[in-house]
Design goal:
It contains four helices and six strands. It is of the alpha+beta class.
């Protein structure tokens, strides 16, 4: 059985291949996505498969080249946290971007139920803990 970290690696692979359908298959139908606020055209939250697909399109649309390079992945039970680099080239501007990001997911029954993007892995981990603490009255991990 694949690990929760494998689920996240598979998700990044889908992003790098441009395969939205493969990515959506890894998400719980009620997925909650929390964005970092770095990209101004994105909403703060996306819920469910339909809005996850919208998040995908909105994030990728401005980029001619889009890639996620995984630097580190840590798995702690149902929580997986990654340090990644977003690398892209603007479709209109040609501007090249290479910036670090943090990504954290909560996994239930082999699917991601929460996905949090922040500027660092630690910020993503803490934001996921806070979201889960608010939802359940306790803290994750």
């Amino acid at each position: 059985m694949p690990s929760n970290a494998d689920l996240l690696r598979t998700a990044f692979d889908a992003w790098n291949r441009g395969d939205c359908d493969a990515w959506i298959e890894l998400l719980d139908p009620e997925i909650e996505i929390s964005t970092s606020g770095v990209f101004p055209d994105l909403a703060a939250e996306y819920r469910g498969h339909h809005l996850a697909a919208k998040f995908w399109r909105q994030l990728r649309e401005p980029w001619e080249v889009f890639g996620i390079v995984v630097e580190d992945i840590e798995e702690d039970g149902d929580v997986v946290v990654a340090s990644v680099r977003f690398q892209g080239t603007g479709a209109d501007s040609g501007v090249e971007v290479d910036m670090p990001f943090g990504n954290a997911i909560l996994v239930r029954d082999g699917l991601a139920t929460h996905l949090v993007n922040r500027r660092t892995a630690e910020e993503a981990r803490e934001a996921l803990r806070t979201r889960q603490g608010d939802a359940t009255g306790s803290s994750v991990g």
